[in-house]
Amino acid sequence: MRINTYEKLAAATCTAAMLLCMSACSDKPDVSEASDTIAAGDITESVTETENTVAAALQQTENTAYALVPNGEDVTAPIWLKIPNMVTLEKGDSFTVDNYISYIDDRDSDVTLEVTGEYDTSVVGEYPINLTITDDAGNSTTGSFTLNMVEPVTETESTPSQTEETHQTISFDDFITRYDADGVMLGIDVSKWQGEIDFDAVKNAGCDFVILRAMVYHEGELIEDSYFKTNLAAAKAAGLKVGVYIYTFGNTEEIIRSHAQMLAELLDGEELDFPIGYDWEAFKRFQQYHLSIMDLNNLFYAFADEMTKYGYDTMLYSSKYYLETLWYPLEYDVWLAHYTDETSYEGDYLLWQVNCIGRIDGIEGDVDINVCYMDGDN
Question: Does the residue 160 lie in any domain?
């Protein structure tokens, strides 16, 4: 989707307004429709029903990047990204509330967490834990879960047998039958986890394209995927269209811009058939990154801005839940992850990652399978 500057401002206003209502969202923070966590709509908020003002606007900087900036009074409460119904631990285990929850605010990068409720990890029982998260403006959201302390299971005790679920897979032939259409390409995305790949066999199986993981942020260091260069050469030699993505959870603009520069150096002018995928999905204990929704989006814009200096476009990879809850893709292409037969995502997207259980000739084991809509308007 492409929109002009004035439309960007309108889109930001509409998206910000949507964020004000996101406590009503019934989806779960997952690429599938199922989750064992409480959705944002199930959390009680202590903010009033007074109509909110738009909390964000776009500001064009000298380098033509776009940044979200505060606009007006902050009356939007933080939201839960994850809060369990119950945490079960064995008697004597250590317990830290922060390890089991995740939350974010639209503007405040350091939300205050208040925990109430008495518990004793040395005594078996169920303990109610009550939580309040509050931003700098005093807007609060509450939540709760049960801490369930149980007796340790000894080695002599047997646990009830469970019937193993059959691992479901989808053949690429079936995938083609279901999703092939005019204006559509069908493909896969891979990383080192797929091991050695026979891309000629992949191509002959009816695959049109492959998105390769180029780099991954691991233990504070951005490293090259060990199969990237081999996969890149082989995929191109097989006649597949090729794109790349980077997985990062850098939490400062300096880190993110350096990651973009390192990726550009690795690519060294390599021609690609898709925008570069920006994959930031470290939402477990999100508060540890000290980022607001605005901060998170500005990191994406910084990455995209840096990549344009090297002649590359960027697309945002994310699940349906987070696209609807946290991200402002604006004029950028979207790579949607939603593991379902028919997506209910209403925004525009270039790629749709349908599931991660595809099977195709040339690859041992499961692989992510994707639909590409070549006009990028779905």
Answer: no
